[in-house]
Design brief:
single chain; mainly alpha; 2 domains; two-stranded antiparallel ribbon; 2 strands; elongated; disordered N terminus
Length: 287
Amino acid sequence: MSTLAESHNPGSHNPGGHSVTEAARNRRFGPMYSRNVKAVIARGLMATKSSNWMVMLSGFFEPVLYLISMGVGLGAIVGAVQGPGGQEISYAAYIAPALLAVSAMNGAVYDSTWNVFFKMNFAKLYQGMLYTSLGPLDVAMGEIFLALLRGLLYATGFTAVMGVMGLITTPWAILMIPASVLIAFGFASFGMGITSFMKTFQQMDWINFVMLPMFLFSATFYPLSVYPQYIQWLIQAMPLWHGVELLRQISVGIFSPATAIHVGYYLVMIVLGVMLTAGRLRKLFLK
């Protein structure tokens, strides 16, 4: 009985006679990080393979359907529009990079919010993980990596669809894939941290409440110039707008100082998001 109790205790002793907690405190990075992110990733891949693959597949088709309905259908009415650098491009080529950014955001947000919410509040998965030698940073980075993998798959598939539709006109467009992963990283790092504050399904609805305006008003379907000045400022503060503009520039191979600003925005977002997530996991489960 005592052995069984010790195996479930965060301070249980290992064969060397040291507790897991004591070993965590004495390692190089302290209790925050055990350099075993791969264990979290392996567990997530097994779970995805067995139960979540249909959800992932459906998430890929949503932006493709938007591209066909809006880009092809509405594009026949709209005609050519002004793209980055002032050159004329088709409406489908204009909204395709924006929909790719939306796809990266949606995939990352799903994995880092609703998926995390269930694991944290119902499956109690993270509590179990942190009862082992894993630290909060291992768990955070593992979960974020899984969200990035989803974003990578979406970006690769959607870029291939753009190629089939003849919407890729420059070799630079291949950079949309790593840029989409950067966008997914930004949203995933913050999504998990924000979800740690949520306790009910009603609170989780606020995430959709925030994402919908970003989808509609981040210059996804219309240029920023059509909005009043004060709305333009609000849009430019949104993370999705920076992703849309970044991918739109890459898609035509035209870069400017604003490109570095868009990339820098996401780098700052990633650092702050990872710090928030790791800090919240430590506060919740390593008391």
